[in-house]
Structure formats: C-alpha cells, structure tokens
C-alpha cells in the first residue's frame, strides 16, 4: 500500500502524457476530416446547377416574353387562369347619372288628373244646360210659353257652361304640352294616358335616372339599356325611357332617361356613374381588371401557353367595361391569368436581372 502511494506521481505524469497524445491525435484526425468534407462540399456546390424558380425566355426566341413555372411554383404563387369567351360587345361611354326627385312629375300628374276631372264636370254641366236651353228656345219661339227672361237665363247658363268646357280643355292641353316639354314625349304621354310607367314611378316601384354624356359626345343610336353603379358598388341594370328634353347645366351634354328598380339601392338625389353602350356591336371578350399588369407605361396580361409556360402580351385598355376591359382579337377559350399576374411579372424580370448578372460575371 505504501509502495503504490510512493509511485503515484510518476504514474500520474505518464498518464498525463498519454492522454495528451490521444487528444492531439483526435484533433488532427478531426481537422483532416473537416478539411476533406469542406472540399467535397465546395466541389458539390460548384457542380450543382443553378435553377431559377421562374426562368424567362427572351422575346426574340418565342416572339413574345414568356416565363416557365412548375406546378408547385404556380401553387405557391397563387396562379389562377380563366378562359375568355368572345361575345357581341358594344363600346361604352361613361355618363354622369342623377336619380331624379319625382315630386315635380307627381305634382304635374296630379294637376293633369284634376284638370281631367274638372273637364268632365264642365262637360256634364254643359250637357244639362244645353238641354235646358234647347227646350227654352222651343217654348219661347213657338207660342211664347215662357218669358223672354226665362229663355235668356237658360241661354246664358248654356253659354257659360260651354265656355267653362273650352277653358278646361285648354287647361288640359296646356298640361299635356308642359309634360312633354319638361319630361319628354314618353313620360309626357305617360302622364296624359296614365300609363303603367307613370303608375310605377308614382308608386315608387321604379326610380328615374337621368344620364348626361360629357360635352361633345354623341351616340350613333338610342341606347337599349345602360348600367349604373349604386353607392355600395352594386351594378344596376337600367331600362331606356327616352331622350331627356333638357340637360344637366353643369355638363352641357346630351341627356337620357332610364328607369331602375326602386329596391336597387338608387335613391332620389343620388349621383352615380352610368355606363351607356355606344356604336355597333363587335366580337370581344371581357378581360378582368385583375389580369392586367403595367410595365413601362403599357398594360400587359399573361396568357397560359402550356402547362408550365405563360406569355406576356400587350393589352389595349381604351375600351373599359364594368370589372375590366373589352379586348378583341383574342382566340375564344384563351386562358388568361386572373390571379398572380403581378407575381409572374416580378419573377420574369427577376430572372432577367439574374441572367444578366451571371452573364456579366462570366465575361
């Protein structure tokens, strides 16, 4: 026991030297292994091809800028395409619409009805006084059965009633002319004839909308309808009534009357944008607003040309329509990107920038 204790310092030193050698060997081996792994990693990185997420092809190769995107990348970008359908379309003009307060028209209709009733009363009185006058004339002219005073009284009553009828007829004619001058021929006739159109307007089942075009703009033919945008953004179809006999003094343009359902959200006194069809119908498709992207001051849209390819094509935006634009010359059934178009544009130009940078580096 004492021998072991006396030899412990020597043993301890030997163990320390041995352990240090082991640690050094392990460290050298680790460094060698790490250096080899690093060389293999760098070689692998250099050998691995760089594949952009959305490589594009130049316009010179395909005739139009294109971009390729795989199914997973399309899902990640939220790409949605919609097929376009051609149909007869008419160009449209934006007009300033006002929902008219119908109280003046209602008052005019009431005045016309009252004048009609007064004419009927006057005609009834004239019929009675004329009969009395004819009887008095016979009695007085034969054997003077009645006095001259009685005859003259009957004659005077007849003449007064005849004048009253003439005055009532004149009043009724004046109101009819006023209705046409103030409200146009269609509404004027509706007042005179108590037409269903007038009944619906007075009963508030319909509202009357006056649409005024910008000054100097004209329609080649009377519109067969129009569309107004309500306060909540709802598009309301309008039925054409007639040309308006007077315009909005603020705009100095041609005006038209339309009707809309009273439950459409259009209320008297409201202003609304009214889109009025103009010109002959041509074949075209409605391109949604969400499909349009802007680059270099030009409007573009991406069309699907394959399962993974999309072509960017210029779009004319001069023909606006509710929700987008009317485009012509597009094949029926062409699939246009309606969601994710901006992502495609960003990916296309990002790949072009990266390609240019890589080309510069190789030079």
What does this entry look like structurally?
It is a single chain. The protein has 363 residues and is an alpha+beta fold. 48% of the residues lie in helices and 26% in strands. It has 7 helices and 15 strands. The protein has helices at 2-47, 59-62, 71-77, 103-143, 148-193, 196-202, 341-362; strands spanning 56-57, 66-68, 80-83, 87-99, 206-212, 226-229, 235-243, 255-261, 271-288, 293-295, 298-304, 309-314, 320-321, 324-327, 335-339. The strands form 3 sheets. A 6-stranded antiparallel barrel has the order 4-5-8-7-6-9. Helix 4 runs antiparallel to helix 5. The radius of gyration is 45 Å and the shape is rod-shaped. Mean pLDDT is 80; it is low at 1-61.
Q: How do the strands and helices of this protein lay out in sequence?
A:
Elements lengths: L1 H46 L8 E2 L1 H4 L3 E3 L2 H7 L2 E4 L3 E13 L3 H41 L4 H46 L2 H7 L3 E7 L13 E4 L5 E9 L11 E7 L9 E18 L4 E3 L2 E7 L4 E6 L5 E2 L2 E4 L7 E5 L1 H22 L1
Antiparallel strand pairs: 1-2, 2-12, 3-15, 4-5, 4-9, 5-8, 6-7, 6-9, 7-8, 9-14, 10-11, 11-12, 13-14
Helix pairs in contact: 4-5
């Amino acid at each position: 026991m004492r021998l072991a204790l006396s030899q412990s310092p020597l043993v301890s030193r030997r163990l320390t030297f041995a352990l240090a050698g082991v640690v050094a060997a392990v460290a050298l081996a680790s460094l060698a292994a790490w250096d080899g792994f690093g060389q293999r990693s760098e070689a692998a990185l250099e050998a691995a091809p760089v594949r952009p997420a959305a490589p594009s092809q130049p316009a010179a190769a395909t005739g139009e800028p294109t971009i390729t995107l795989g199914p997973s990348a399309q899902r990640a970008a939220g790409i949605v395409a919609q097929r376009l359908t051609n149909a007869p379309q008419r160009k449209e003009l934006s007009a300033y619409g006002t929902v008219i307060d119908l109280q003046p028209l209602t008052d005019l209709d009431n005045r016309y009805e009252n004048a009609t009733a007064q004419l009927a009363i006057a005609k009834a009185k004239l019929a009675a006084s004329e009969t009395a006058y004819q009887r008095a004339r016979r009695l007085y002219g034969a054997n003077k059965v009645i006095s001259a005073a009685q005859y003259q009284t009957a004659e005077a009553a007849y003449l007064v009633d005849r004048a009253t009828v003439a005055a009532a007829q004149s009043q009724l004619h004046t109101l009819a002319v006023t209705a046409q001058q103030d409200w146009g021929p269609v509404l004027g006739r509706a007042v005179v004839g108590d037409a269903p159109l007038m009944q619906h307007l007075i009963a508030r089942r319909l509202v009357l909308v006056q649409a005024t075009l910008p000054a100097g703009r004209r329609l080649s033919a009377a519109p067969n309808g129009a569309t107004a945008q309500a306060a909540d953004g709802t598009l309301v179809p309008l039925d054409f009534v007639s040309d308006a006999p007077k315009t909005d003094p603020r705009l100095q343009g041609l005006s038209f009357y339309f009707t809309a359902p009273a439950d459409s959200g259009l209320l008297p006194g409201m202003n609304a944008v009214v889109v009025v069809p103009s010109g002959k119908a041509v074949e075209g498709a409605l391109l949604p607003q969400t499909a349009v992207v802007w680059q270099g001051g030009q409007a573009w849209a991406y069309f699907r040309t394959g399962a993974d390819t999309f072509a960017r094509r210029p779009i004319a935006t001069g023909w606006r329509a509710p929700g987008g634009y009317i485009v012509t010359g597009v094949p029926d059934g062409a699939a246009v990107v309606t969601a994710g178009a901006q992502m495609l544009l960003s990916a296309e130009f990002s790949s072009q920038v990266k390609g240019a940078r890589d080309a510069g580096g190789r030079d």
